Amino acid sequence: MVPVARLLLVDDDPFALETLSDALGHAGYEVDVVSRASEALARLETSGYDLLITGYELEDLGGMELLDQVQQLHPGMPSMIITAMASRESAVAAMRAGALDYLAKPFHVEEFVGAVQAVLERVRRRAADEQAGEGAAATGSGSPGEFEQLIGRNPRMQRVYSLIRTVAPAGSTVLITGESGTGKERVAAAIHNRSPRSSGPFVRVNCSAFAEGVLESELFGHEQGAFTGAVKRRAGVFRKAHSGTLFLDEIGDLPTATQVKLLRVIQEREVQPVGGDTAVPVDVRLVAATNRDLSREVKEGRFREDLYFRLNVIPIHLPALRERPDDIPHLAQHFLQAFGKRCGKTVRGFTDRAVSAMERYNWPGNVRELENAIERAVVLATEEVIDLHDLPPEVKGTAGSVEGTFQLNTVRLSEVEEIVIRRVLTRTGWNIKRSAETLGITRATLYSKIRKFGLAAARTTTA
Fold this sequence. Notes:
By secondary structure, the protein is an alpha/beta fold. It is built from 20 helices and 16 strands. The chain has four domains: about 130 residues, Rossmann fold (3-Layer(aba) Sandwich); about 150 residues, Rossmann fold (3-Layer(aba) Sandwich); about 80 residues, Orthogonal Bundle (Helicase, Ruva Protein, domain 3); about 50 residues, Arc Repressor Mutant, subunit A (Orthogonal Bundle). The strands form five sheets. It has a five-stranded parallel beta sheet with strand order 2-1-3-4-5, sandwiched between helices.
């Protein structure tokens, strides 16, 4: 017998609460109702739910802020938003906050129940996928911290995985942002692999790797004789990606003239080769990526606003490696096994001081820099365990005493307390129960410390 799903419904409209909870009850669900975000957080702390459904505006907190707090305190909690203030921006914001669906008022009760059923089915399928992934991990083909070719157990990466699962089945354009080396191409590949276009081509092009004239030929193709050196016709990547996915990396480096032509291709869904008179229809899913702040580029006149809005339909932001230090040991071990196998070396792991140095280092080159560092360490290693001296100078230079983080003669006790609590929360993926046990305090005390030091707010603003 399938267990009855437990739902938590949050809305400050008493009539909506009564109507929607009655409809869900008649559909066979067990429903608890509250009117305030604080009540919802208290219920989530003491009771288990399969889905959180919240209004967009509540008496004490906005629905988006509630979702942010829920994702911090209960990572992976399924949720959906209902609102009377529907807009593309609020829908995208809801998805980024972790919502699996976004339902705009007014709607029929039957539509609402159907949406809830669809979300619960998606949650069920996702749980089945993750269970299958854990089974693969037991046989050595994957791990719970892996998703496609991405690795990370940190809640921020889990949110990225959730977004990929949500947007992949759609045909919407995706804009992936993040610093160089964070894995934007792997996110694009994951979206393609989970989409209905997965049997079609996945074509990559780096927009910064070509001069302006050459780039247009690379994107749109050219006819024979269109310019000096055009000795034969070229199809271009849009036509090569027909029925599949086109990944435009470093889209922020696109020349202004090419931006105009790309906008036309997106709008008209057809390309006109350089030197050609006839437009050719194309059917591609467009995924773009950049390490630049495109909104700032728009304000400063270097990127077209209309193209930016065409690209930024579904934004996905990848955190820098320094923002998820708890993932560093997992990534390092993954690279260690890969390079050990490639080099034919038996290398089992890392010393504690090597791990500590890697966790303290800032990693400006992100995952790519970590990968290179581990490759270097494996090649140079003379023992079966990587030690501090095997790491690059800039990495092992961070190893040292506590003074490397703060000066003991000037630090306050509260600052040490904040650092320790922040580190434990990060390492446990913001699991409040485990963090409290590790710190030897109650969960109520830990919540008080989180509020005291503003840790939840700081974590939200950098997500």
